[in-house]
Specification:
Ribosomal_Su5_D2-typ_SF, globular, Ribosomal Protein S5, domain 2, 127 residues, endonuclease
Length: 127
């Protein structure tokens, strides 16, 4: 088992990091509760950025709970390659319990790993 911490080197920290993903989205994984956008980086490891608005999650407690779940599931993945990943929350997220979100996130990470640029089934397909 590897290190499952979430150091600063695993995070998108600056606005420029987020802009890099938004301006060059190469992998998109839509889901009912989340939207994942990703672009390759040259760091040799994945980095994660989170965007959850007050419009979709009214209370800070709700936003923090969902962010914690996203970070937890991200830390336990070692198959995401060298990607900068932004996770956006969608509406109706607050009403979901932790188990539902955990399953959804694991499914999303699997789809992202399959679509990632280092994977031969990933980006070179049209459509």
């Amino acid at each position: 088992m590897g290190d499952h911490s979430f150091p600063k080197t695993s995070r998108l920290l600056r606005p420029a990091d987020y802009s890099g993903v938004f301006n060059d989205v190469q992998v998109r994984v839509p889901h009912r509760h989340f939207l994942i956008l990703a672009s390759p980086n040259s760091l040799g490891r994945p980095r994660l950025g989170l965007i959850f608005s007050k419009r979709n999650l009214r209370h800070a407690v709700q936003r923090n709970r969902v962010k914690r779940l996203v970070r937890e599931t991200f830390r336990h993945r070692d198959d995401l390659g060298s990607l900068d990943i932004v996770v956006l929350g969608r509406q109706n997220l607050a009403g979901q319990d932790n188990q539902v979100l955990h399953r959804a996130l694991n499914d999303i990470w699997q789809k992202l790993a399959r679509k990632s640029p280092g994977n031969d089934t990933g980006l070179n397909r049209s459509g």
